[in-house]
Inverse folding.
């Protein structure tokens, strides 16, 4: 699967023909241990990480050829630094290619000024073992909580060229996995059916129960 076959723009689930949307942070546990005292519920975050890792490991095998793309909104000055937390989690010496690109076709309706764009770094030619996947997933889960570290502000897309799918953990609440082929996602639909986001469950059941 080539980089440009699936547009790397949230929400992946709504922007692609076949997708699954999972609830990562379980609502029944709740994010707050004590909301008045602003104490976060550690069980919520540990469960979210366990779910994210489990789905990732089911979607990505150790032998798969993968790329990882990370992108941020820029006012024209903001850039992705080579020493960023994201890049420090990847064995860049194992990569076939590292490319920095600017994109104005992403969220184009929200780009108010000519200088605004989305800046992306794509690390290609990787295997799963070449990146600290669990650290990246944890940082994405923490993205909306300033008191929790590590944290990544931006969007991260895991691209599986072997299986032909893209995974995006958009924050602590949810994860999208999309593909150009329905059959690619069927094992995930069956195995992790209980974690499917109820809000979109009817749509997913309509698509994947028809096989």
């Amino acid at each position: 699967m080539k980089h440009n076959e699936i547009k790397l723009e949230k929400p992946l689930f709504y922007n692609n023909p076949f997708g699954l949307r999972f609830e990562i942070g379980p609502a029944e546990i709740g994010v707050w241990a004590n909301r008045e005292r602003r104490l976060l519920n550690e069980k919520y975050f540990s469960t979210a990480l366990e779910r994210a890792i489990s789905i990732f490991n089911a979607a990505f095998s150790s032998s798969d050829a993968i790329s990882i793309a990370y992108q941020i909104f820029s006012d024209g000055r903001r850039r992705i630094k080579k020493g960023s937390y994201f890049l420090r989690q990847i064995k860049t010496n194992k990569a076939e290619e590292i490319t920095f690109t600017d994109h104005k076709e992403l969220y184009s309706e929200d780009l108010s000024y000519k200088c605004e764009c989305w800046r992306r770094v794509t690390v290609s030619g990787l295997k799963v073992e070449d990146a600290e996947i669990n650290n990246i997933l944890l940082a994405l889960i923490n993205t909306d909580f300033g008191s929790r570290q590590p944290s990544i502000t931006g969007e991260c897309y895991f691209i599986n060229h072997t299986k032909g799918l893209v995974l995006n953990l958009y924050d602590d609440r949810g994860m999208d996995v999309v593909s150009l082929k329905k059959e690619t996602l069927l094992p995930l639909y069956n195995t992790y059916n209980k974690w499917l986001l109820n809000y979109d469950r009817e749509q997913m059941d309509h698509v994947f129960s028809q096989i």
Summary: The mean pLDDT is 95. Residues 33 and 39 are 5 Å apart (CA to CA). The first strand starts at residue 18 and ends at 23. Residues 3-208 form one domain.
